[in-house]
Amino acid sequence: MKQDIHLPEPQKEGGLSLREALSARRSTRSYSTAQIPLQTLSNILWAGWGFSHGQGQLRTAPSSHNRQEMELYVFLPSGVYTYNAAANSLEQIFEEDLRRVTCVQEYAFEAPLQIAMISDTSKITGKTPEGVIEAVSANAAYISENIYLACAAEGLSTVARLMIPLEDMRKALNLRPEQRISIVQTIGYYKKA
Description:
Low-confidence stretches: none
Number of domains: 1
Largest sheet: 7 strands, antiparallel
Radius of gyration: 16 Å
Strand content: 25-35%
Helix content: 25-40%
């Protein structure tokens, strides 16, 4: 039976300064299997693609013409969820652990969390096909960098990945043709060698 996860209110104050987070931000490829607390997950998702100015208006990351075409798919051991920023919750869409379908690099299999940035390109009009790809790629990159900074502030390791088994992921998630996978971000605690 599918079960949504209601996240704690994200912590929007305190923590590292922007300069400290920028200094700590880096890509890592070694992860422990330790689970991420819900408060930390809430903070990361809000930083990546939450609402910064009221519900349903402006996000923490920009999007071309404020189309907000991006959706965050959250892969956890308990299943796959979509992030509902307005409700601050994870809506379960699959009960199976599908984290492996997001990865081709062996190091990513250990991490407890994968976040996929998937856009609905039907929301973008007035652009050439190349312009649509440019817009969703830039928008995913903004979100990814916000997640990088949030992970630095939370003491987590992360890496944005473009080596993605796209067709396997599309099939496993039953994506529509207009949905485009841009980036998958691996997140977890650093595992010392």
